[in-house]
Amino acid sequence: EVQLVQSEAEVKEPGESLKISCKGSGYVFANYWVGWVRQMPGKGLEWMGIIYPGDSDTRYSPSFQGRVTISADQSIGTAYLQWSSLKTSDTAMYYCARHPSGYDLTWFDSWGQGTLVIVSS
Amino acid sequence: EIVLTQSPGTLSLSPGERATLSCRASQSVNNYLAWYQQKPGQAPRLLIYSASARATGVPDRFSGSGSGTDFTLIISRLEPEDFAVYYCQLYGGSPKTFGQGTKVDIK
Q1: A60-97 pLDDT per residue, tens
Q2: Measured between alpha carbons, how far is B13 from B75 in angstroms, rounded to an integer?
Q3: Are A113 and B87 in contact (CB < 8 Å)?
Q4: Of A44, A63, A106, the CB nearest to B87
Q5: Facing residue for A112 by CB, picked from B1, B36, B43
């Protein structure tokens, strides 16, 4: 069974750095694109970007390029989303999700449970 | 960047009724379109991919259609567990934009 398990909720102050994680199991992690989706409180889904863990090829939404970094460590089956300097506007639920193949022109077929990030002074 | 517009914003219906949700793209996306369901406090769940293919385990009361710029998700007879928010997503390029969502609530 494919599973994506995300790290626990985080409470941070503006200006702090943060790295959240998404561990895949039940499949060969390196061979499937994994992406990140933001959902701000009471709002819709926003596609942030994706990574192919096998070679770390990464695609970002223009809205998030330069604001976050997506990475992966295929040796431990984990993808990451990180910020170097958080803003209060980064407060949101963040989901990781997997593509069903090594082809990036596909949908998300499995989702993590979400990581709530709260940024407040 | 292609924009997806979903309508209506909210659909108020009773159990047993038919729900018709629309997703319109600002330019052709061929059939690179998926639909997701999200219930409160839960992660989204894939319903439909390639505009009309049902994902594994999705009941056949859910059907998708369309190509090019106009797409439709139909729930033939609403069950109590179907009241949720539905999102369309294009995935034929980058960014893989989501629509703003349609909430199906109980009338």
Answers
A1: 999 999 999 999 999 999 999 999 999 999 999 999 99
A2: 11
A3: no
A4: A44
A5: B43
Residues of chain A positioned with their CB less than 8 A from the CB of B99 = 44
Distance from C-alpha of A111 to C-alpha of B23, rounded to nearest angstrom: 22
The band of A103, judged by pLDDT with boundaries at 50, 70 and 90, is confident
Residue B44's beta-bridge partner residues? Answer: none
Cβ contacts of A46 within 8 Å, gap of 6 or more: A37, A38, A39, A40, A61, A63, B98
How far apart CA A43 and CA A54 sit, in angstroms, is 33
Q: How far away is chain B from the Cα of A121, in angstroms, using its nearest Cα? A: 25
Kindly list the residues from chain B whose CB atom is less than 8 angstroms away from the CB atom of residue A107.
34, 46, 49, 89, 91
In single-letter form, the type of residue at position A85 comes to S
- Assign A90 to helix, strand or coil: helix
Pick A44's closest partner by Cβ from B92, B94, B100. B100
Q: Tens digits of per-residue pLDDT, B40-99?
A: 999 999 999 999 999 999 999 999 999 999 999 999 999 999 999 999 999 988 899 999
- Give every strand in the sheet of B10-13, ordered side by side: B10-13, B102-106, B85-90, B33-38, B45-49, B53-54
